[in-house]
User: Fold these one by one.
Assistant:
Number 1:
Amino acid sequence: MSILICDSNCELWYTRAEELGVDFIPMPYFFEDRELSYDLGRETDFKNFYKAMREGTMPKTMALNPEDYKRFLTPYFERGEDVFYVSFSHAMSGTFASLYAALEELKARYPARKCTVFDTKAISLGAGLQVEAAALKKREGASDEELLAFLTAYRDRLGCYFVVDDLMHLKRGGRLSAAAAVAGTMLRLKPILTFNEEGGLSVYEKAMGSKKALRMLADHCIREMTAPEYPVYVLDADCAEEGDRLAALIREKRPEAEIRRQTVGPVIGTHCGPGTLAVLFIGEKRPIPLK
C-alpha cells in the first residue's frame, strides 16, 4: 500500500489534509527578504502578504532542487513504503525536472520502492479537489492502479474558472504577454481563465468589468456543476467580500452544493495577485478554452 502525498500548491487546507492523512511537500517562496514555505495555511499571515503586495512588494516563487525532493521522499523509502504523489500541474513549473532527477537517484538506492506521480494539470484547489478525492478513494481500499484510473477520469471533469484583478501579475510570471496585459487593463477587460489540456492557463472568455466577471464565474458553476457530492470551492485573494458574493450567487441557484470558502495561498498569490477570484467544482467535462 502506498502513502498518498501532495504539494502545498494544491492548497488543500491544513486541517483537511490532516483529516485525510495526506502528507505534503512545502513549496517555497521569497517574501520580504525571507525564504518561506507555504504550510497550507497553518501559520500563514495572509493579510500581511496581500497588504504588502498591494503596497508594491513583489514576492517570488522558487523551484525545489533534487536534494529537496530526496530529503522529503527518502524517509518513506527507508521505511519500505511506496509513494503516490498527486502533484500540481507540470506545465506550471520547472520543479518537476528536479523531482524526476531525484527519483532516478532514489530508484538506484531503493530499487524495490515505487513513486507514482499523477499530474493534476491544475493548481491551487484545482489540484486540491483531486487530492481530496484521491484520499477518500484510498480510504475505500483502492490500489495504486485503481487510483490512477479514477484520477484520470476525475481530472477530466474538473471545472475551474478564475479572474484576476491586475493582469500585470500574470504578465510578470510569464502567464500573459505584455501586450495582452496592457490592452486588457486599458479596455477594462477581465479575462475568465481556465486550465488548458496541457495544464497551463488559457483564456476561456472575456468580461467587461469586475461585476460582469463575477456573475460569469457564478453562472458557469450554476450551469455546469453536476456532482454535488463533491464540494465547490470559492477562492479569493484578499477580496473576501467579492468571494462571499460569488458564493451567495451560487448558493441561491444551487442550494444543494456544499460551498467551501478559502484564501489563495502566497505561492499562487504571487502569480495571480490580490483581488483574484476563482470557483472550482466537478462537472461533466473539463472546460475547453479559446485557442
Number 2:
Amino acid sequence: MRLDKETVLPMNLMARRIVGDRRFERLIIALIVLNGVLVGLETSTTVVAHAGGLIEWLHHLILAAFVAEVGIKLAAVAPAWRRYFGDSWNLFDFTIVVLSLLPFSGELAMIARMVRLLRVLRLVSALPKLRLVVATLVHALPGMGHVLMLVALLFYIYAVAGYHLFHGTDPERWGTLGAALLTLFQIATLEGWAEVMYAAMETAPWAWVYFISFVIIGTFVMINLFIAVVINSLDESKAIEAAGDGRAAAAGIDAPLLDELRAAREALARVEAALSARRS
C-alpha cells in the first residue's frame, strides 16, 4: 500500500516522539543489560538445564524489541535514510541486529552465541557517556601511535644494550634480541623485575643503573605520556559534543522538536512544489 504525504508525516512525528522519549531510551538500556545477564547465565550448565527454554525465549523477545527499535528509528527519519545510516552508532546497532537475524545453526551455533554477546556492546551506543569515552579513545589513536613508536624505540635500544651487557651471564633472559625484548616487557609490567636486576648485579654491581633508568623512563614516563594523550583527546571530544549541544541550545530547541520542525519544513516544501506543478 502506498502512503501519501499526509499519512507519512504524522507517522514520522510519532516515531520521533518515541525515539526522543527518555522512557524509550531507558527501556532499550534495560533490555541490553538483561541480554548481558542472560549471556552470563548461559555459561552455567545448571541454569541452562533448568531454564534453558526460558532464556532462549527471552533472547528472541529481546531481539524482537531491538528490531522494533531499528524500525522506529528508521521511521523517524524516513524517507531521509542517510540521516540514520550516516550516524556511526546507528550503523553499529543496525549491523548487530542484522547479524542476530542470520540463521546460524549446527556448527555455526557458536557464532550465534558470540553475536548475542556482541549485543552487550550496544550499551556503549545507548549511553552518551560511554560514547564519549569511545570517541576519546578513537581521537587518541593518532597520538598514541607516536607514543608507541617512542616506546618501541626505547625498548629496542635497551634490548640491544641489555644483550651486550648481560647475555654472557644470563643467556636465558638476555641471550637473544627477542629474549631481551621479552625480559624488558616483563620489567615494564613491574612483575618480578627486582629478581632480574639482582641476578644481573651478581656479576655487574652497577647494573642497577640500567634497570632503574628503564623502569623510570619506560614505565612511569611512558604511562604519563599515554594519560596525557587520552586527557587531551577527552577535552577535544567534550568540546565537539558541547559545540553540537550548544547549537541546539542557542536556538532554544531540543533535538526531537528540532527534527519535527525540519520534517514540517520539508513537507511544506513538497506541498509548495506540488502546487507549483499544478499551476504550471
Number 3:
Amino acid sequence: MIRAAGLFLALLVLLACPAPARAQADQDLRRSPVVRAVEAVAPAVVNITTARVLRRQSPFGPMFGNDLLGRFFQDLYGRDQETEKTQSLGSGIIIDGRKALVLTNSHVIAGASEIRVRLMDGREFKAELVGSDPDFDLAVLRLEGASDLPQAAMGDSSDIRIGETVIAIGNPFGYNHTVTTGVVSALNRSVTTKEGEFSDFIQTDAAINPGNSGGPLLNILGQVIGLNTAIQARAEGIGFATPINKAKKAVAELVATGRVAPVWLGVFGQDLDRKTAEYLGLGNVKGLLVTDVYQGSAAAGAGIRPGDVILAMDGRPVEGRAQYMALLRGHTRSDTLGLVCRRGQDQYAVKVKARVMLEKTAADLAQTRWGITVSDNPQGGALVREVAPGSPADRLGLRPGDVIHQIGSLRLKSAKGFLNAYLHHRQDNALLMRVQRGSGLYYVRMVM
C-alpha cells in the first residue's frame, strides 16, 4: 500500500514537471550504461578496407601455347599474369589519436597492397603498416595525414569477471559500426587453427562475425578490454578476443621495431607417454618433460634440469609440448613467467625471465639439432650450405645447394626467415618443408 502511494506521488511529480523536463528525464532513462559506452568509443572504431593484387594466368595460354591463335585470344581476353584486385573488410580501434595509430588483427591486413581506413564521421585515410605479428594476430597502422582523431580508453583485462556485460563494435559483413552485447563466458581459452594453437583468449557470447575482427570488446564503463579476433564457425554464441593487456605489450614492440620478437626460456622437451609418467610417479601424462637445458639460458639460471616436468605456466596447466609453445608465444621479452615444475617426488615453483633468442644462438642450435647451416639465396629462400653427418637433415637426404622455401606454415625469404622458423618449430618432432633442388620443388618431412 505504501509502495503504491509512493509510485502515485512520483507520477504526480512527473506530471507536474514541464514537458521539456519530462522529455529530458525520459532521454536520461534511455541512456543506459551500454548506450553511454558505445557513445564514448564508437567514434574511435574504424572500418578497414584492404586491396590485394592477385596474379592469374590467362585460361587460353596453356591451351594454345605460343602460336598465332593463342596470342590472338590472349590479346582479346588478357595475357598471362594479368593482375586483379580483391578487397576485404575488417575493423580496428584508434589507440593513439595524436600519433594516428590504429590497432587491428594481423590477418585483417595480411598480404594487403593497399590499406584504407574510414572513420565514423566519414573521413577516410590511407594507412601505412607500422608493424604486424601473426603469433599475436595483431597489427598497428598509422593513418597518413590524419589529425584531430578520437581515441578509445584502454581498460585493464587482468580483473575481467566471468559473467560481466561486454560490448562488441565492428563492421560484420560490411555493416558499419554494428553493436552487439553479451557476457564474458570464460577466460584463458585456447583456439586451434591451421596456423597453430593460440592461447589466452577471452570467450564471449557477444555476436562476433566476419568483419568484426580487429574491433574492440568493451566493458560497461566504455573501456577496451579486448580485441575481437576469432570466431568458432561451427557454433553459435562463441566468440574470442585477445586481452588488451596482452595487446599492449605487443603494441609497444610493434611500434618500436615493427615486430614482436619471439621469446624462449632455454628448455627443450617432449610429451610424456604413459610409461615415462609412471616411472616419474605422475598420475597422468600431462606436462612437458625437459630433455635438455641450453647452457647460459634463463631456464639454466633458474635451476631447471633435464628430467624435470613443467606442469604449469603462469597458473595455466601445460598439457604438453604444443601447449607449452602456444603459451610461450603469448609472451614478450618484458615478461617474467611463473613455472610450476616437478622433480622426482617434489614439486617446486620458479620465476623465469623470457628472453629473445639471438640469431647466433638460433643458427648454432639449428646446426646442432637439425644439422642445417644456411645462407641467403639471391632468388629467395634459405640456401643450404652444410649438412651435418648423421643429423635429421642428413637422414632426410638434404644436401648443400638445396633451397628451403617453407618450413611448416612459414615461408622463407632469407636465412633470417630460416632462423625465425627454427625458433617457432624448435620443439617439433617432425617438420614439413618445401625444398627446391635444381628445377624441382618438393614437399619433404624431416623427422628428429
